[in-house]
Amino acid sequence: MKAAITTQAGNPEVIEIKEVAQPEAKTGWVLIQVRAFGLNRSELFTRRGDSPGVEFPRIQGIECVGWVQEDPSGTYANGQQVAAIMGGMGRFFDGGYAEYTLVPLEIVFPFESQLPWHILGAIPEMFQTVSGSLHQALEIEAGEVLLIRGGTSSIGMLACQLAKTKDLTVVSTTRNPAKKQTLLDNGADHVLIDSGSISEELRSLYPAGVDKVLELIGTQTLKDSLKCIAPKGMVCMTGILGNEWTMKDFTPMGDIPSLGRLTVYMGESKNLSKELLQAFIDEVEKGSIQLNIDKVYPLDQVPIAHQYMEDNLAKGKIVVELK
């Protein structure tokens, strides 16, 4: 089979397209013919060598959609549509950057859809992350004001749409003024140009602060996001678009406002269910949710796609589709 193999830690050129042996099905695992997969920032960090415990060479990819090729357990029929997500996929065992992938049974989720594969490929990790961040971590409620820091990312764009369906007011940010209209068209009520410090401008709109903040940039803007919340408001750090894992200086009794709450969301496959996934796919199929897919690449252009992701050029999800 053909696979995009990360040969060693480094820049995107360390990913090479090679012919390798197709994995063989085994008890407790499902062999999937991959039809599409989304790219994720965590895969960028893994490629750089920043993910602990990962050994190279490695076929990366923490998600995929496709058909069941073989399931020794008989849980899924050959040809059944499925998604696979996380659980060590693409890190501790080979993942979705290939024509076939062998994954544990417990991270496989069946679905039925007539959507094109490139659209389906954008869904699993993006939906799991957004749904978990908004509902499980931030516990959003109708009538609240939500600030999305890093609004033009695929997670930010979908989070805005889902929040609007729950009757929240959304303030979204971008560093690029040219992307302001994109965020407004996506449903944001207000757009702030993010210089790294937006708390004063935010409080000119909402003097008391906002109820919830979805922090997708990460440590670079976390302190400023904490300055944006109202008493008993909450910040959830889900993303690290700023490419920095740790903070140089952080004083909990100072940087976290009194009564403020700070949490993180690091969802796993256990945070997803086949019912949740199918319901979301149905909404996309009906047109109730518009996925923001920026570019679709073939498998042999995964290195180019990684460079595009690293350069922060995308205005939505990057997807790889296999023909």
Automatic annotation (TrEMBL):
Species of the source: Reichenbachiella ulvae
The Enoyl reductase (ER) domain extends over 10-320
Which PANTHER family does the UniProt record give? QUINONE OXIDOREDUCTASE
Determine if NADP is one of this entry's keywords: yes
The protein's name is Zinc-binding alcohol dehydrogenase family protein
**Keywords linked to the UniProt accession:** NADP
Gene3D superfamilies, per this entry? Answer: Medium-chain alcohol dehydrogenases, catalytic domain, NAD(P)-binding Rossmann-like Domain
**NADP: present as a keyword of the record?**
yes
* Family annotation (InterPro entries): ADH-like_N, ER, GroES-like_sf, NAD(P)-bd_dom_sf, Zinc-ADH_QOR/CCCR
